[in-house]
């Protein structure tokens, strides 16, 4: 493909100082011809140009050693060989080759560093530089260079995309939209294996968390095959949620599971927690409201031969918890495996935690509800607060109606946008949440009062610092409160 190899290149005069030659010293040396600016239909030929690069004439006997010693300053362009014929007439001695150098690193013989100079001396190579005329084509340019040359000067040329199987998924800005077909074509040309480029056309606010998208270039086949952490998934990317940036998080949670554990995946999608959990030997109940996601979840369970270990549901998360989960939980909690509840719907999952309040009815006999049998919850949320950890805990507590102080941990998953974090709060479901009216005094004390109360804050409580637990007296009972709650109470008109 590289025209530079079949074009008759010429060596011009030897020169020791290349700074004099403007093309050689120009930092935008690989900048395509100005005529391509504003192009909306890709014309690959229009990118062809001749440039000059410095070259060393190296005896073939030491060529490999010299190339190795000078690899930091040798020319590196896609599709261009850095060692070429020395341009001597056919039938010449053939005892020399030219090593092409990066003109951004080498402007004159003085540009060589200590190591390079020592190598040239050791191998008996003259530091004299030759000018080599090279044909640079569209194939030799990087996508960023092509787009920078085409799009209006001074505007952002982000050519980043997420890769989902054969699909490159872009999120173009408004000023890039007039060039969208060209951008799609360039991304496809420059990324082997990408046969379809799509642009997101809405923000992700749909219930099923999938994007609306427009095909910019290539085929319109949206059924992707993806391997994540060694597991194969297939799904229609236009109709379900899939985020390649969650692979580390999926792996982290799955690594906490043991063979024989039970997993309740409330917002399962196409199965990136459920399938690897089943492959690890867990018994899985996986649910998703989106019928398409549910269909691909079943498909992926069969594809990975774990369908016997996964029971799937196509329900709203609350219905799933109040129905199939509630029915099975008492039996599962009595079994030998730990029960895990995964809730990855970061925009809403914390609100769903209130479904667990009293879910299993009256507390069973002592022993059947000991702390160790309680489900481990991994619940996701977005936070824009200065202290996302604290924010996550407070919202989980508000939804559950109990304090999680000292009994939860928060994991930062990823930065989603400037000032927006995706977080995961992990905790063992408190007994007093799952079972109704536990009358023990200890449990009463753990509850955060939700009713409006009138109270006189003691001096002691008022001096509590942010993040500390204080004690204040409510209706003559003792109730441990987080300082942040106290602060909220102080601010309320009732107080
Ligand atoms: C952020 S995705 C996570 C999918 C998958 N667990 C993952 O990690 O990639 C959230 C999923 O929740 C589903 N969903 C949205 N609202 C739901 C609800 N009310 N009940 C159950 N599932 C819901 C969506 O269809 C989507 O597949």
Automatic annotation (TrEMBL):
GO terms for cellular component: mitochondrial matrix; nucleus. GO terms for biological process: mitochondrial tRNA methylation; tRNA N1-guanine methylation. Its main location: mitochondrion. Pfam families: TRM5-TYW2_MTfase, TYW2_N_2. Keywords: Cytoplasm, Methyltransferase, Mitochondrion, Nucleus, S-adenosyl-L-methionine, Transferase, tRNA processing. It is found in: Mitochondrion matrix; Nucleus; Cytoplasm. One of its GO terms (molecular function) is tRNA (guanine(37)-N1)-methyltransferase activity. PROSITE patterns: SAM_MT_TRM5_TYW2. Its EC number is 2.1.1.228. Residues 161-431 form the SAM-dependent methyltransferase TRM5/TYW2-type domain. It catalyses: guanosine(37) in tRNA + S-adenosyl-L-methionine = N(1)-methylguanosine(37) in tRNA + S-adenosyl-L-homocysteine + H(+). InterPro entries: MeTrfase_TRM5/TYW2, SAM-dependent_MTases_sf, TRM5-TYW2-like_MTfase, TRM5/TYW2-like_N, tRNA_Gua_MeTrfase_euk. S-adenosyl-L-methionine binds at residues 250, 288-289, 316-317, 344. Gene3D superfamilies: Met-10+ protein-like domains (3.30.300.110), Vaccinia Virus protein VP39 (3.40.50.150). Involved in mitochondrial tRNA methylation. Specifically methylates the N1 position of guanosine-37 in various tRNAs. Methylation is not dependent on the nature of the nucleoside 5' of the target nucleoside. This is the first step in the biosynthesis of wybutosine (yW), a modified base adjacent to the anticodon of tRNAs and required for accurate decoding. Monomer. Belongs to the class I-like SAM-binding methyltransferase superfamily. TRM5/TYW2 family. This is tRNA (guanine(37)-N1)-methyltransferase. It comes from Electrophorus electricus. The lineage of its organism: Eukaryota, Metazoa, Chordata, Craniata, Vertebrata. The gene is TRMT5.
